[in-house]
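Sequence design from tokenized structure. All designs in this work follow the same two-part layout: the structure record, then the generated sequence. An example of the structure record is given first.
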């Protein structure tokens, strides 16, 4: 078995690495090779040079030596890459086996920022067939894809457009999409966003993707596909993927809080200040994690999720999931573990039935009518307008790798659909 890894072939102007892979799969099959389910491998969502979702592809093929399929892969890459893109630096890797070092490289590529030289070092040391173009950055993703091993996985069926339609508006029957979602959710997810009344499974960019249906069950995905009315796709590919698995999240519970930008974390701490909204609708609040204050943010595109964040009060014990950018954790999910009691104090009632008034700063309270005094205020316990449990950003703001709560099978989860 050989594994072909491909990355960094497209630009904002067009093409898509998954489309290139789809065409290559067809060509390999036409040449008589047995191709197993391809992998759509998402890498660190904070990587600087990504075009969109930091995707790389691995294609397992039953073949003997890399040279036998290398030329087909190379020809397809050169034909379907946008080599003129400033940030397009294709990488192609064909490995005969997956070693522990390659698996480690994948785990780090999904959580850390890596260097081109490191990828080249492993490829040379392990004697792996590879070709890199321009600055060869694509070798990072191509090697990581080949080395990928998923602890958890989901599926995505991607339908691609006919070439003559690329760059034109996509023709999709919206009613059939909502219907397909109703019929197959929760085995499929992130097709639509109910809270924002939007269809989210289809891009608006000029690339060849018509739409992608995500889910846990390939049969349910196929059923949803059969229900959707749209322009006729040119081709479709079902990928197994690490999307929706939180593979990018580093669990920091019980560990020293040494956090770096461009990595994604799960942290446990207590809310250390009132959430505040700033211009543009972004909401910020600090949490105390082992004595260290960390700023958390729910940005405007997270829409209704910000209402949950605004309901937090100091003392709430929470877990947060998200990526560190400029020393601020950009929230993807939040788990409210226990809530502080929310209290309000007011002047006490006097024995005469009248409510006392403040007697001045630090002076307690006094009844105007009968002159009775009191030091103690009356403390009221207010009800909280949220309940404990897990909350997430809506599908329209979801990161590819973020595990949707519908997959958590946790009775405390409040999935955003
Ligand atoms: P698309 O999703 O449309 O295929 P993309 O968002 O995947 O595009 P690429 O064009 O593949 O973006 O560019 C991402 C680049 O970043 C690639 O060169 C890839 O090798 C590199 N890269 C991926 N993960 C990391 C990482 N962890 N550290 C450093 N570089 C990375």
């Amino acid at each position: 078995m050989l594994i072909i890894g491909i990355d960094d072939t497209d630009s904002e102007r067009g093409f898509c690495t998954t489309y290139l892979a789809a065409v290559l799969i067809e060509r390999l099959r036409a040449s008589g090779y047995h191709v197993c389910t391809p992998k759509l491998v998402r890498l660190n969502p904070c990587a600087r040079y990504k075009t969109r979702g930091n995707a790389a592809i691995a294609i397992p093929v039953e073949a003997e030596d890399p040279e036998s399929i290398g030329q087909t892969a190379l020809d397809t890459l050169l034909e379907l890459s946008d080599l003129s893109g400033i940030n397009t630096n294709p990488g192609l890797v064909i490995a005969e086996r997956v070693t522990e070092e390659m698996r480690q490289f994948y785990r780090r590529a999904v959580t850390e920022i890596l260097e081109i030289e490191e990828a080249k070092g492993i490829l040379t040391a392990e004697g792996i067939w590879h070709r890199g173009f321009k600055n060869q950055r694509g070798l990072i993703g191509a090697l990581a894809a080949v080395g990928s091993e998923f602890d958890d996985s989901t599926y995505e069926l991607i339908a691609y457009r006919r070439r003559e339609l690329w760059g034109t508006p996509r023709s999709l029957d919206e009613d059939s999409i909502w219907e397909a979602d109703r019929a197959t959710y929760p085995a499929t997810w992130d097709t639509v966003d109910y809270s924002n009344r939007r269809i989210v499974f289809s891009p608006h960019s000029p690339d060849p993707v018509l739409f992608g249906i995500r889910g846990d069950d390939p049969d349910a995905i196929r059923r949803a596909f059969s229900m959707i009315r749209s322009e006729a796709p040119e081709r479709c590919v079902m990928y197994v993927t690490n999307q929706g698995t939180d593979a990018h999240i580093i669990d920091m519970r019980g560990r020293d809080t040494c956090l770096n930008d461009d990595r994604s974390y799960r942290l446990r701490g207590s809310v250390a200040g009132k959430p505040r909204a700033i211009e543009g609708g972004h909401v910020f609040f600090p949490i105390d994690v082992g004595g260290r204050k960390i700023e958390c943010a729910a940005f405007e595109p997270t829409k209704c999720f910000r209402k949950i964040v605004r309901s937090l009060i100091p003392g709430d014990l929470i877990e947060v999931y998200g990526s560190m950018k400029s020393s601020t954790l950009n929230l993807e999910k939040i788990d409210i573990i226990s809530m502080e009691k929310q209290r309000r104090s007011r002047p006490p009632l006097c024995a005469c039935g009248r409510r006392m008034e403040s007697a001045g700063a630090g002076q307690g309270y006094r009844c105007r009518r009968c002159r009775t005094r009191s030091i103690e205020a009356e403390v009221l316990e207010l009800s909280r307008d949220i309940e404990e449990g897990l909350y997430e950003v809506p599908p329209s703001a979801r990161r590819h790798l973020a595990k949707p709560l519908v997959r958590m099978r946790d009775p405390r989860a409040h999935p955003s659909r």
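The chain has a mean pLDDT of 96. We note this feature because it recurs in several other targets discussed in the main text.
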